[in-house]
Amino acid sequence: MAPQTSETEQVVDLNSWLPITASRKAKWWYSAFHNVTAMVGAGVLGLPFALSQLGWIPGIVAILGSWLITFYTLWQLVELHEAVPGKRFDRYPELGEHAFGPKLGYWIVMPQQTCVQVASTIVYSVTGGKSLKNYSMVAFIASTIRGSHHHPATYGVRSHTTAGQIFDVLNGIGTIAFAYAGHSVVLEIQATIPSTQKNTSKKPMWKGCVVAYIIVALCYLAVSISGFWAFGNVFAMPVFDMLESCLVQKLHFTPGRALRFAGRSTYVAITGFIALCIPFFGGLLGFFGGLVFASTSYFTPCIIWLVLKKPNRWSFHWIASWISIIIGVLIAVLAPIGGIRQIIISAKTYKFFS
């Protein structure tokens, strides 16, 4: 008779196979690299367009303001990763479960994180299919060279009507929010860093985050400013982790390469097909940036912080958290409106599967 395995041993064995917890050998520079790649992606290409919708000063203020708020909420997530001594919250939903309860917490965080990951995959596919180009430094250099030879005379906002300007502002803010999407994978990145009760993973993780955010600021400002000046007027890993965990735990598939290949290939095929159907790059950034990215990056970490840490009323963290929550909720409610309008406008000229 085969020896019985406890539920704890099964979880440990599964964690040694799942992509996020398979290895804990990362250093602080791994954190910096992964956080940069999580942030500086397709969203950066939409920043010049967002700046043209908002205008010079409001656009730069929105980019820097978002950088500041998400830098703070990033710190909160890094701190909360080991909020309980001897326990690690290696996945965003696990932290949600600890804050709001096993069932409620999971269903509050998991759908939001999944939407961020799926939306990122779709938008990245649209980006690759539409442009097959540049990234931040290439966009910066190309825009600067073009601007030197073909400098436009005016830098007014894109729309000429009051209603159009309002909708453009909402879409522009959503586009900027999309650019700060790394929070959905922060705990998963930190899960790869080793830790003990004496030497926690917070220090190397935060060191990497600081370096990453400095690089993010340079890339975002360089691309958005140079792009507007010149032209005028891995995200999927938590999804794979969740998908493979569900296939093994709920549907009782055997962990292995065949399961991993089939599951990931199916996911990529589905999101790629959706990307072919809806080539509305600018509208997608604004819509998804407001609808789900604002939540995972702007206000969900703050809500969890208030629930778990219970800072004193009118203390720095209480005020900072509530400011982030209010701004994040406003973005989540209003920005998708601008994104939908941009999609409707684009639909007049775009054809599906184009």
Automatic annotation (TrEMBL):
A GO biological process held by the record: auxin-activated signaling pathway
InterPro entries for the chain: AA_transpt_TM
Q: What's the protein's topology in the membrane?
A: Multi-pass membrane protein
Q: Which keywords has UniProt assigned to this entry?
A: Amino-acid transport, Auxin signaling pathway, Membrane, Symport, Transmembrane, Transmembrane helix, Transport
Report the superkingdom from the record: Eukaryota
Signal peptide location: none
Answer yes or no on keyword RNA-binding.
no
A Pfam family it matches = Aa_trans
What region holds the Amino acid transporter transmembrane domain?
25-134, 137-233, 234-340
Question: What are the transmembrane regions?
Answer: 28-50, 56-78, 205-223, 261-281, 287-308, 320-344
Which Gene Ontology terms of cellular component type are present?
endomembrane system
GO terms assigned for molecular function: symporter activity
Q: Where in the cell is it found?
A: Endomembrane system
* Sequence similarity: Belongs to the amino acid/polyamine transporter 2 family. Amino acid/auxin permease (AAAP) (TC 2.A.18.1) subfamily.
| Job of this protein | Carrier protein involved in proton-driven auxin influx. Mediates the formation of auxin gradient from developing leaves (site of auxin biosynthesis) to tips by contributing to the loading of auxin in vascular tissues and facilitating acropetal (base to tip) auxin transport within inner tissues of the root apex, and basipetal (tip to base) auxin transport within outer tissues of the root apex. May be involved in lateral roots and nodules formation.
Its recorded name reads Lysine histidine transporter-like 5
